[in-house]
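wait is this the right file?? whatever heres the structure
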């Protein structure tokens, strides 16, 4: 009997409460989730629903109060911060709404840094960086500093940085949230392109139109999954089109 492959990511019983100034915020109240290899899932829901907290838990940036996460079948409960950092470098690229680039490093250095930290030889890190920046339309910007780029360009650099180690999973937290509609289209087109090549993606967005690029949409409300639906309207993969028609029609 052949065993089914482990999901790329599995979460069971995740709970997270933030204790800030005021009353505790019950951001994630019991979430079970499984993500297959190659799947593109959008997590959508209103502001404050707990979407970002969920993404942070899945990437090991925050610890759950209860529940567990498995990466490729491996339970992460006992991971130290350092171990999570190593695993992220190998397995999980993350992009944020405000890019989080290192402002005093050049574009080239921002992208190469995770490859060097992962132990890649400098020559190889450089080759990866060159290939990705070319693919993302950023050739010629290598020596620029992040502050000299448009928001859309900075987000493309952040994508290159997230993908330089070829992680199987990309977590994207409102990656178009601070961009104009042209930048939004660019980012969504790139996410769809990487997905078509087999990249697994979890995209957090409050925008239902952007969520339509995914092949599965999870609706999050008040810390819980209230709906989890396959988008069967999505055209077949590798057909030269993706499920982004609604996104690509966004007007400037
Ligand atoms: N570090 C924190 N400290 C205290 N409360 C927090 C913290 N992070 C989030 N929260 C609270 O947890 C709840 C969920 O926040 P979260 O950012 O996860 O929601 P969201 O769905 O991503 O919202 P948005 O779409 O506005 O980004 C909110 O009530 C928020 O105020």
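ok assuming it is, sequence goes like this
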């Amino acid at each position: 009997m052949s065993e089914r492959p482990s999901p790329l990511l599995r979460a069971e019983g995740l709970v997270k409460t933030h204790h800030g100034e005021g009353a505790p915020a019950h951001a994630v109240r019991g979430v079970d989730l499984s993500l297959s290899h190659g799947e593109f899932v959008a997590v959508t829901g209103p502001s404050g629903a707990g979407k970002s907290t969920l993404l942070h838990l899945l990437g090991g940036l925050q610890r759950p109060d209860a529940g567990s996460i498995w990466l490729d079948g491996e339970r992460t409960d006992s991971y130290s911060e350092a171990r999570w950092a190593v695993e992220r470098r190998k397995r999980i690229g993350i992009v944020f709404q405000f890019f989080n680039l290192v402002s005093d490093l050049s574009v080239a250095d921002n992208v190469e840094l995770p490859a060097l930290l992962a132990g890649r030889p400098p020559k190889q890190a450089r080759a990866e960086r060159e290939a990705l920046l070319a693919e993302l339309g950023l050739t010629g910007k290598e020596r620029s500093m992040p502050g000299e780029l448009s928001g859309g360009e900075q987000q493309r650099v952040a994508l290159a940085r997230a993908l330089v180690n070829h992680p199987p999973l990309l977590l994207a937290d409102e990656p178009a949230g601070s961009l104009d509609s042209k930048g939004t289209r660019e980012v969504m087109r790139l996410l769809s392109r990487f997905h078509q090549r087999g990249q697994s993606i979890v995209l957090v967005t409050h925008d239902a139109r952007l969520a339509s690029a995914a092949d599965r949409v999870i609706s999050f409300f008040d810390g819980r999954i209230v709906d989890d639906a396959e988008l069967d309207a999505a055209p077949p993969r590798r057909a030269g089109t993706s499920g982004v028609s609604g996104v690509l029609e966004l007007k400037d």
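DSSP finds eight helices and ten strands in the chain. so i think its the right one actually
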